[in-house]
Amino acid sequence: MFSKSMRNVFRQGLDCTKVLNVICKRHLYEPAAIGLDKYEFFRNKLTNQFSEADSQTFRERMDTFADPDSTSLIFTEDLKQIIHMIGNTEADLTLVEKMMKKYNKQNKGLRFGNFTFGPVVMRMYYHLNKPDIALKVYNDPEMDGFFDQLSSYQVLMDLLFVNGMFDQILDVYKSIQEKQLQIAKFPKGVMMLVFAACYKLNTSESFQYACKLWKEQQEAGHNPIRKTITFFAANAINQNSPHIAIEVITSVRNQSYVTLRNLKVMALCDLGRIVDALPLLRSILSSDIPMSSGTIVKQNYCRDVINLVQSAAEKLNDKEILLELERIISQLEELNLVTETTLDNLLCSQVKLVDRTEFASRNPMVAASYQSDSRPYKKREFRRPGITDLL
Question: What pTM was computed for the model?
């Protein structure tokens, strides 16, 4: 097994990356996958339609209408306009909050329009990078029911992830459970963010919470997406539970994914089973993966994982294993199958968006039942292997 000092090396690597996450604003979803491109498209469109003078006049009028003592109503179009017009100023942020609260109050019990504001508002806060305000508004009793959509939770939680607010992600998920909404008990996109938060927190408490959630999902017959599985497996390795990582990884049908293979090698080395890790390292020397598009995906291992395998082998002090490992690594290097990308970067790579028509042709029933709030100028669909209902 890895020595305590070796485990610290791995953890320090993750901690360094965590600092970079905050500085570089890493997103688990690319902007298009959470509809941020939709928001920015309509924001730019509105900017081109209204002069600065017209925008200021509108703000002043809305400020009067939003007053609790005013008998004027806040209409759907009013709120739509301010959400796409708002600037990063305290006055604008206060105005939009006042308008949302009045709109939500006047529509209690009877909604005249069918526009869903929750996800769009969260995209607004995401665009402005205001996680604290987004969280405050989400938790405000006056906004009850306003954000009860999976898309709203997902955008908010990704915004929190971007800003390193991992504890708050777990708080949001707990609040979703308490609301007992008529939605899936374990929504795939939300669960991915929850397990990502547990992985980033990397504490015994967060790991135990992840284990509890995993067990609940298994008992309910829920199949987590691959990204959720890799976060849980990495968390288990960090928390001295490589045996759990091995079992979790085995639950994935297709074992050829880069993240899974890197994690499995690490877990095996951690268990002192380096001999079992060698065939995995050797297996990619002649195994490119053909994709449906006709392109070939090169399989590889992360440099930090290779370094850890070498350290584990040196600790065993078995000359035969060391020689074989040296030969394998030399071949991997010659074929450019060792990447400088860290395992943490690989785990936190963005969920991307692909064309809906390609997805629909492969999954007609799923695509037909898929609904999205406030669709933009073009119908789109999210897809990553195993993800069929992110939003």
Answer: 0.82
